[in-house]
Every structure is written in structure tokens, then in C-alpha cells.
Model the fold of this input.
Amino acid sequence: MIIPLRPCGPPELANASAACDPQVAAAEEEAYRGREQWGNVRLLELVLETTKTCRICKVAKPLNDFQRRSESADGYRNDCRDCRAIYYSEWRKKHLEEQRQISREYAANHREKSRARANHWRINNPSQKHAANLQWARKNRDKAVLSNLNWRRRNPEKGIVYANARRAREADADGSFDAEEWRVFLQAFGGKCVCCGRKAKLTVDHIVPLSCGGTNHIENLQPLCLKCNSAKGTKTINFLVAYEAT
Done:
């Protein structure tokens, strides 16, 4: 809605001479009407300078709702951002494979930029990334299992940390530890099981089991081989005291 500008002068005549002379009064009134009309036209021009009508939705919107385009006469595109978003969304649905091919070619030709952009998106959208990973894993179960196994072979310490973090969440237990803490912890015992003293593949054992209210802090952990860990079960036994005494 266009709000008329306030007239440049009052509608009634201000000086006495104009009131006494009909010709002067008519000239004053005509000049005032001209200023009023000019004000309304100028306001309309200002509104048109700061708004634009989208060619698709036919709605007048602020110029900020339009993307810039140097080739256009006014420097803006003729379709608004919302209409362009809808158009590209529908285009991607119809040309899904073509869009994937374009993305693959761009990533191959711009590896560093693509990795930086992907890392930035993952950091700023953790929940969406997690949801996307779950959706991909459901659709590609065999690939997901194989990928998980390969990752665990390359990152054994991180795999142990993540597995125990999941167990702790399920048990609603407090505490956490990272891969570096676990690596230093193993080195402190020479990579040996603190129960039998053998060098073997070691597992994380909670001195006070998570099921019995134990925490997932590094102070509640001890490295045990798989056989000793299975034999201990859900009992609360601290093998560190006996091992350090030897």
C-alpha cells in the first residue's frame, strides 16, 4: 500500500493578499496541487526502486529477496529466491543422476575445496550428518558392515573408545575417555593383560561393571585379554592392585 507524502504546504492559503485576490488564490492552489502530485509520484518511484515483482509468483518483494545479476537492467534476477529454490529443488528431483555426475566431476577436479566444504558442513550440521549416515547404512547394509570393519582395522583404539561410549550411553553411565588416553594406558602396562600377564589382544574392562553402576572414566578401566575379561564377567574385581604390587 502506498502512503501519500505529506503535502509541501497547507491546503488553506496563508497570506491575506492571496485570500483577497481570486487569481492569486487559484495560482497558489494549483501550485500546491502540483507539489502534492509530485510527492506521490516520487514516493511511488522510491517504492519501485526498493522493490521488484517476481516474474513467477507475481509478488512485489524487497530487492534483498532477489539474487544479483549484472546482465539485468536493474542488476537483479527476475525471479525471487524462493521461486528459484523451488525450481532447483524440482530440477534436482528430475535430474538426480545428472546432478550426482556433476557433483562427482566437480569433486574430482576440486578435491581440496570439496573436502574443506564437506568438513565444514559436517562440523556445523552434526545431527543431519548422523541422520544421513544412518539412512545410507540402512540402504547399504553390506557396504556399511564392510566399511565399519575396515575402519576398525585402521583405527583399533578409536573403535574401542566408540564401542565403550555406546555401552556407557546405553547404561546411562557417567564418564568418557579418548583414544590417546587408552593408548597411553596400555603402554603403562606394557601391552599386557593385568590378570594373566600375557601379551595378547586387550579389551576394555570396567572394574565396577557399567551394569552395576560403574563409570566410563579411565580410572575405572583395566586392560584384560578376552579370556580373562569373559571369566570376570559382571564381578567387581580390581586386578590393577595385584599387578602393580608385582
Remarks:
- Strands lie at 51-53, 60-62, 66-68, 76-80, 202-206, 221-225.
